[in-house]
Specification:
By secondary structure, this protein is mostly beta strands. It has no helices and 10 strands. The protein is globular, with a radius of gyration of 13 Å.
């Protein structure tokens, strides 16, 4: 089982739109930042604005995944997790949650 990171700084999140239908958030992961533990209550789409690798921590496992600028993907609500950037370059994506 993994535990929450204590040495990473928070990634920067900026809500760009929040209306009756959607919430759109820009996420900026400078090197050494993380989202913090959270779970999604809504279906969402991720639109990578940059290419790079992030680390996905769940309560049961740690894995890495590659983002490619412009290659969007979708996810359903799921388990609690924490996303971190252990790399040397900033990674940016837009998250669109459907209400």
């Amino acid at each position: 089982m993994t535990s929450p990171s204590t040495s990473l700084r928070p990634a920067q999140s900026t809500v760009q739109l929040d209306d009756a239908n959607f919430r759109v958030t820009e996420w900026r992961f400078a090197p050494g930042t993380e989202t913090g533990w959270h779970a999604h209550a809504l279906d969402y789409v991720v639109v990578p604005m940059s290419t790079g690798e992030l680390t996905l921590n769940t309560r049961d496992a740690v894995s890495t995944f590659q983002l490619t600028a412009g290659a969007s993907y979708t996810r359903a609500p799921g388990p609690e997790h924490n996303i971190a950037n252990h790399g040397a370059t900033e990674i940016v994506f837009i998250e669109v949650e459907r209400k």
